[in-house]
Each structure stands twice: as C-alpha cells, then as structure tokens.
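Recap for those who missed Tuesday's class. We walked through two folding examples back to back. For each one, the amino acid string is listed first and its predicted structure tokens come directly after. Nothing is annotated here on purpose, so try labeling regions yourself before you check the end of the notes.
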Amino acid sequence: MQINKLNQCDIGDSLNQPHHQPLYQRLLGDAWHSLPPKLQQLHQIDCDKRFVGEASVQQGHHFLATLIARVFSFPQTAKRVPVIVDFSLDEHGHEHWQRHFGDHLMYTIQYQGQGKQQWLLVERFGYFRFAMAVVVKEQQLHLVMRQWSCFGIKLPLFLAPKIKAYEYQQDDKFHFHVEISLFLIGLLVMYTGFLTPDTEAIPVN
C-alpha cells in the first residue's frame, strides 16, 4: 500500500491538541506522561508524517527463518541501512506504518483492540494479527505479546513468536530494538536503530 500524499504537521502543535488522543496515549492512560519526549513525539500520530534514521538488521540463519522473514517482509541483514517510516491514519483511526529499510518495505497496521482486547495494541501483518500489551518501564516503552490469530482464528500463545520489542530515548533521539524468534527455529530477525522527524518530507508517489 502506498501513501499518496504526505502532509507534514507541526508536531509541537499536535502535542497540545486536547481533543485528540493518539493510539498509544489511549492505551497507556496516565502512563503516557511518563514517556520521554521523543517517544511521545513519534507516537503523536494525528496527521501523515515521516521519520528518518538508520538501523542494523540481523536475520536468523535457519532456512525456515529465511522463509518466514519473506512472508512477513522482514528486512534483510545489514550493518547500517537508512530507514524511512511513513505514518498515516485511515478513516477508522488505524495507524498505517510503512517502514523502508533501504529499498525494502515492511508495512503493518496498528489499532486498538475491541472487547476483551480493548486495552491491547493490535498489529496486523496481512492475515496475522498480534495483540500486545503496551507497558512503560523505566522510561522505556515495551510491547508484550498477549494473543495472536490468523484468518480470525485464535492460535496457541505458546506457539507465538517471542518478541522483545522496546523503545527508548538516547542522545535526544528515538531509539528502537525489535527482536523476534520462534520456537525450535530461533532468531527470525533483529533490528535496532534510531529515528528523527523528517522536516523536509516530500510526497510519496
């Protein structure tokens, strides 16, 4: 999926809009205010915007890890790769994340769960949905797997990918660490790096 137009918003002004609460703020409640400013800045998504940065990526060596990485469009191994993340909202308030690792695109949709999942963050990779708790610990934002499903069918949690994902502020920048592994296979992918607001964003065709 492509974003036809990327409209830069004034991030400082967005942070002061009392009538709108971004997805992560709704899920965190009062804990939102304990997040470092750079984490709040990135997750304040109330308009289309772009962040840029750099990452290092390591894929697992198991042949099934390579196959699964292709299915989920995980980035390929690289010591240093430029990263562009385009954020947008659809008419339902769902956040669309387009992550470009060099020429490689990884696209997901994030939204608030419903019913028993109403306080969980749901991330959709194609037909797979992963419901995660959003937890603030020592000024880091952690994602903790709670449920997963495929084609709407709930899958056993013990078979779910093991995810170590957290965000933090360092050197006045937003930093991320994502590590995904699978039972009997081991590491699928790990990527770490930083992002900063792109103040010179251009339309994406």
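Example two. Treat it independently of the first, because the proteins are unrelated.
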Amino acid sequence: MQWKDVTLDISAEQRTKLKELGSQFNEAMENHGIVNDKILDPLKDELSNVIAANPDVKTILKDAVETGNHYVLRLLDDDNEILNLPWPLAVESDTKTRLGDIETLHLLKTPAKISDKNCADFTPHVAAPLKILIMISSPLDLELKERLSYEKEEGDILKAFEPLLKTGHVQIDYTDDGSLDALKAKIETNQYHILHFSGHGVFKEGKKDKDGKKFENDKGYLQLENHYTLKGELTDEDKFAKAINFNPDYKIPLVVLSSCQTVQGGSEKILSGINQQTLKR
C-alpha cells in the first residue's frame, strides 16, 4: 500500500465552477435521487481536469489500473465544498477509468490544516477481536417521524457484522442510552477499537447583524440525550471529544458519526462542522 498526499491545485475560476456544479449535483440527489447527464457530465469533466493536471497522480492512477498495485490517494484542500465533491466520478485520462471503479485505489479527503499538524504516531494496543461500541441517540421529545428506531439501528449493525460475529472476530457493545454520561461510563472501563454513533446532527449558521456581517461563528452539534430524562440535548464537539477521551490512558482510534449535517460547514470556516471540530480535538 502506497500513500500519496495531493494538494489540489484549483484556480479561483475553477473553484467557482466546481461549486456551482457541485451544488446542482447535490440538489438533484436530495430532491430526486437521480442526476441527469446535463448536470453529471460537466461536473465529471471538471473533476477529471483537476486530477489530470497533476502528473504524479496520473502516473499513480495508471499504475493502479494496469498493475493492480494498491494506493491511498489523499486529497488536501482548505475548502469543505471542494473536498465534499464526488471525486470518485473523475476519470483517469489514459485508461478512461473512473476513480471510483479502480478497485485498488482508496480515496481520502482531508483539510490541509489538519494534515499540516505534527501529530504523534498512534497505535492502538488492544488485542483482537475488534471491539465496537454502539451509541444510539433518539431523544424522547423529538417528533415521532424524526425519532430513530433503536431496534432497526441495532438490527442493521448486527446484520452488517453477522459473518464476523459468528467467527468471533468482532464484539459489539452498547451504551445504556444516548447521553454523554452513558458514553463516559463505557469508555472509562473498556478499550474499544471503534465508536459508532447513530443519531441526529445539527448545524447552525452564525448570527448576522443588520448589515449582514457575522458576529457569531457557525456551529455544529450532535443531538444527544439527557441521562435522566432522555430528552434531547445539543452537544458541541468540545464536550463530545472530552467524553470520547474520558479514559486518560486510552483513545479510541476510530469514531463514526452516522448522522446528518456532521460534515456541514461554511467554506470560510473549514473546521466549523461537528465532524471536523471533533477530529481537530
């Protein structure tokens, strides 16, 4: 497995065009679930042009297609909208293969501000099997149509891991409820490889004055439960990260936020979403 960091070289004109096309793509997906060629083709062409402009990337992609060598391609940029574009649609110019169809290519997307940090190497010292902690939050005061079904969420996870559960390669544990207190209680006494959160995320745009100037930053939250009432509590990344790191002797290597709006964040504030802020901490 070979890693390659690629800082995306995109002109201001290209950025504007990519964002317009990306917005049309997202709108079509959200409203209809189908994107027609009139929207898809121009977006695919623009993404392909960005990828083709980097000769090192072209060499890697061609080698991955022709030899089957495994590569991790990490795309770096400081703009959420650019990183969240459907880059797997881009086409490798020589073999005309979509990036998403190259089986030995693994795409990652990372804000450059995070990749620039000098972080110590981290290796989890926890023996097999893979230990997964599931946290499901469905506050009682949510409207019925918005509430998650505990049984369905648990059932979907168990079904996904069924082959590995049967062979003993995976162990699954659950928090007692969807609160920070319940999460900390589990983390304090156990060492997990993965924390999987299922629930709702909320992104609130910062307030503006009468002239349209922001005086409050954008902010992301997870909608957790109160430990005693099980009603909803908006929890920011700082409180959530502190709960994840509650055990001073061990940090969970992988956290999955399976909830809406956790990656949302304004372009002018790359790390304003709950996902990026938690990652930063």
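Answers for example two:
DSSP finds nine helices and twelve strands in the chain.
The CA atoms of residues 114 and 280 lie 7 Å apart.
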